[in-house]
Amino acid sequence: MTQILVIGGGGMLGQKLAQRLSTENPFGPDARVTLFDLGFPSPSAAGEQIVGDIAAPTAAKALAARRPDLIFHLAAIVSGQAEADFALGWDVNLMASWALLNALKDEHDASEGQYRPRFVFASSIAVFGAPFPEKIDDEFLSAPLTSYGAQKAASELMVSDFSRKGYIDGLSLRLPTICVRPGKANAAASSFFSGIIREPLNGVEAVLPVADTVRHWHASPRAAAGFLTHAAQLDTARLKGRRALNMPGVSCTVAEQIEALRKAAGANTANLIKYRPDPTIDSIVQGWPRNFDTKRALTLGFKAETSFDDIIQAYLEDDFGR
Amino acid sequence: MTQILVIGGGGMLGQKLAQRLSTENPFGPDARVTLFDLGFPSPSAAGEQIVGDIAAPTAAKALAARRPDLIFHLAAIVSGQAEADFALGWDVNLMASWALLNALKDEHDASEGQYRPRFVFASSIAVFGAPFPEKIDDEFLSAPLTSYGAQKAASELMVSDFSRKGYIDGLSLRLPTICVRPGKANAAASSFFSGIIREPLNGVEAVLPVADTVRHWHASPRAAAGFLTHAAQLDTARLKGRRALNMPGVSCTVAEQIEALRKAAGANTANLIKYRPDPTIDSIVQGWPRNFDTKRALTLGFKAETSFDDIIQAYLEDDFGR
Q: What does the mean pLDDT of chain A come to?
């Protein structure tokens, strides 16, 4: 019986993952799912819910002591907040990962090497910083220009080294911006990429804080949940020691996003987007990647949408009106 | 009056740097040098010596409280030892850097932003892991295959992010293997690269643990001390946010090293090298870089030797017979 732990299970992606785990049973009907987070939007049939703070001194030890077979580590302070609160960002986004990995190593050691969980870490394309080539390939350097990106990149190094030593069997997925996020806007600087689609579809005005020439890299929540479950089942020997992977996605400009919205829902809907420049968000987003060549991930079987039309369609099917 | 702190000032490179600081006075005749390390080979005219452990809880705070204008952070557990003692390597090579950077940030905050020291971090080409292109360029990814390399890469991310936020003005130098090291062999897996030159020159047999086809990237201790003082005086605005730099060096095979030794000191000397394969060292070294295109560093004015002959010459001039 596979024991699965989702750290950050109360967040948007954690909830999508939990739903997929409970409906599609990729780890068999007997798999038991535990969700850990600061809080949860609602009671869930998808698994046991534990409320706690992964950055608390005892949290990592207590979770590791359950010896889950499979751990998804999704908990993070988002980019905008990590930029505003430097100490909090490093504490949660790096030091909590560090404590967690060490707690898992302690269990590995206590089991005389028998315990070696699969560990899937949600990293981000924020590990990359400008200037970029036209397409970022699988060998391009991590030179982040945000604290969030630096924290994710440093965590990746730990996941890889703990894995190389055999304490865990881990990998890091550099997720595109997840779009269209259901629910409310959050403090991530990337929040508007979803807002300009979601709000108009729900009949509400949305603010666009950057020029519509901004190009970015997107995948739907559905695709992201698929990346995570695929990573959990991947033969990690195929990674040949390079355990951080750029995930596939759709590269498009904000203008192309808006055009896809117009096609899906009409001009009146698209006209609900109002351009109000925000220099802070603009300067963060200018440092973000725009396009990728994700050959490795595609070869390894990771799948994303191939157009922004498909991304809007996924939102309409999975989240609209719920 | 410039206050200079050299953390790891008792080590080989720290001593070379201290010597250069005291003889060449690159920061003026009034500069005051403080050396910090677990121990020192001898009393020194080069500066005040403080004995302590940078990984001790109070060490970073006490050093930061002195508000040095310029800090060289050279202290590290070497690669072989970091591989053998996982916890010690991470504690010293990453967590001590973390404590130090935070202690400097606390001083920055306490001074209301007035205090912002130059911080030169000794990183390593061990941040790179195989497979490599024929020459590693300035945009190649850090995918280390040793704990030492992972710890250095994670420290670089911190140095860059603390600098981006303005708490320090830092940069990381990815040093080639330093060769020819004076003194005794150490626990670094790279120790033999110096041993096969130094021991024969001193009439002693030396063990070569890898095939002579192994190609590697070298710079002399003299060049390395020059990298450090150059970095301390560099206009960091020229780095445009990318604060980790691959240092220049000489790419050559072990066979070419041996041929240079033969040219410098004769066949009898070169014949003192005995080939005894060591699979552990071989497997570590196979994961190391062999050649670089260090355009950025050269453009920024960093200078190294251009042949292994010159590297042997630097040893003969600076260290032989001392």
A: 95
Q: Report phi then psi at A149, rounded to 5.
A: -65, -40
Chain A residues with beta carbon closer than 8 angstroms to that of B164: 145
Average pLDDT over residues B166-190: 92
Q: Alpha-carbon distance A77 to A151, whole Å?
A: 10
Select from A139, A140, A147 the Cβ nearest to the Cβ of B161. A147
* B-proximal residues of A, 230-249, CB under 8 Å: 241-242, 244
Q: Strand, coil or helix: what is A233?
A: helix
**Is residue A86 within 8 angstroms of chain B, CB to CB?**
yes
The DSSP element (H or E) to which B282 belongs, if any, is helix B279-286
DSSP per-residue codes, B80-125? HHHHH-HHHHHIIIIIHHHHHHHHHHHHHHHTTT----EEEEEEEG
Where do the domains of chain B lie? 3-175+220-246, 191-216+250-295+305-318
Q: Is A171 helix (H, G, I), strand (E, B) or coil?
A: strand
Among chain B residues, the shortest Cα distance to A157 is held by: B150
* Topology (CATH) of B191-216+250-295+305-318: UDP-galactose 4-epimerase; domain 1 (3.90.25)
Residue B113 has pLDDT above 80, yes or no: yes
Of residues A36, A8, A3, the one with CA closest to residue A21: A3
**Which residues in chain A have their CB less than 8 angstroms from residue B140's CB?**
139, 141
d(CA A80, CA A114): 40
Q: Are the beta carbons of B150 and A157 separated by less than 8 Å?
A: yes
Q: Torsion-angle region of residue A277: left (phi > 0), alpha (psi -120 to 50) or beta? A: beta
Please tell me the distance from the alpha carbon of residue B258 to that of residue B269, in angstroms, as a whole number: 10
Other C-beta atoms within 10 Å of B53: how many? 14
Active site residues of A: 148
Task: Show the CA angle centred on residue A216, arms to residues A215 and A221, nearest 5°.
Answer: 150
With contacts defined as CB-CB under 8 Å, which chain B residues touch A125? none
Angle between helix axes B12-24 and B221-233 (nearest 10 degrees) is 60
From B148, B167, B275, B315, active-site residue: B148
Run of H or E residues at A176: none
Contact B142 A141 (CB under 8 A): yes
pLDDT score at A45: 73
ipTM: 0.95
CB B146 within 8 A of CB B284: yes
Beta carbons of A143 and B241 less than 8 Å apart: yes
How are beta strands B215-219 and B250-253 bridged, if at all?
A: antiparallel
Chain B residues touching residue A133 (CB < 8 angstroms)? 139
Chain B (110-129) residues lying within 8 Å, Cβ to Cβ, of chain A: 129
Is B148 assigned a catalytic role?
Answer: yes
Q: With contacts defined as CB-CB under 8 Å, which chain A residues touch B77?
A: none
pLDDT at residue A185, rounded to an integer: 83
Position B306 confidence tier, pLDDT thresholds 50, 70, 90? very high
**Does the beta carbon of A207 lie under 8 angstroms from any beta carbon of chain B?**
no
How confident is the model at residue A46, as a pLDDT? 80
Yes or no: say if B50 and B34 are a contact pair by the CB < 8 Å rule: yes
Chain A closest CA to B144's CA: distance in Å? 8
The CATH number, out of the four listed (3.40.50.1820, 3.40.50.720, 3.90.550.10, 3.40.50.300), of the domain defined by the range B3-175+220-246: 3.40.50.720
Rounded Cα–Cα distance for residues B249 and A48 (Å): 56
